[in-house]
Amino acid sequence: MADVAFQQNRIARATSTRRGSSLRYALKRKSTAAFLMTLPLILLIAILVIYPAFYSLHLATLNKSMQKFVGLGNFQFLFRRETFWLVVKQSCIFAITAVIFKALIGFIVAHFVHNIPAKGQRKWRGMLLVPWVIPPAMSTLAWLWLFDPSYSAFNYTLSLFGIGPIPWLGEAGWARFSVILVNIWYGAPFFMIMYLAALKSVPDQLYEAAAIDGANWWQRIWYVTLPMMRNIIAITTLFSLIVTFANFDIVRILTNGGPLDHTHLFATWAFRVGIEGSDIPLGASVSLFMFPILAIAAIFILRDISKRGNEA
Known about the structure:
Layout: H1 2-28, H2 30-59, H3 73-79, H4 82-114, H5 118-128, H6 130-133, H7 136-146, H8 153-159, H9 172-200, H10 204-212, H11 217-245, H12 249-254, H13 266-276, H14 280-288, H15 290-311
Helix pairs in contact: 2-14, 4-9, 4-11, 9-11, 11-15, 13-14
């Protein structure tokens, strides 16, 4: 009996020793340490992003009083409304147009800053980042004054040349142009700073080799700069597309969706329907409709990035 008890004690000690060593080994692994360090952020994302997303999905299946399950009834109701499809059209036009011009302007300005001597670059970077640093609600209020129908600084300037007045926020076409213009002004510096960082990482030897081969300025950009920046361009475009689709403050302050709902985006119309119209489930359904559009865009962009990574 004593031998059996002694043998069992030895097995127990050996098992605990193995468990302790495996635990120490797991804690020493870089992947485990990285997971433990990112765990607070994962929990924060779960609380602030994942839970609200699933709760919104739950709300979208309820009726207006949030007492009865209606399944896809809210979505069927939206699909029969002309205003909803107008919002879908306007959101796509707004996001795609704004992102294209932000990327184009950011690329041009990044090249301009990149070719400035190192001493002056810090000053230019600081000045060009001002629109992106200012809170969008505050800067949009300044634009609201510039577009004011009675005291518009733009109309006053144009009147000196015998042009105008232009109903910047009173006519559907000009109102769309105005909100897109403000979004471009606000978001272009982000593209500029991202592209500038990418340009700094392009080796000078590639440009020298291209110059030796007789490549002109445009050919150097097309065959050297753009291929080296493709991943940064794709990721920046995807991030900006998500943020632009979900834009709220610019449209809310400038036009509040007018005139006649012709500048509403998903976020502003969801607020109008859900909060101002006291129909929270329908507002949740409107906001959730952004997900499939952005998911499709993300799949194509990330798949392209992954394909280039595998080729490299």
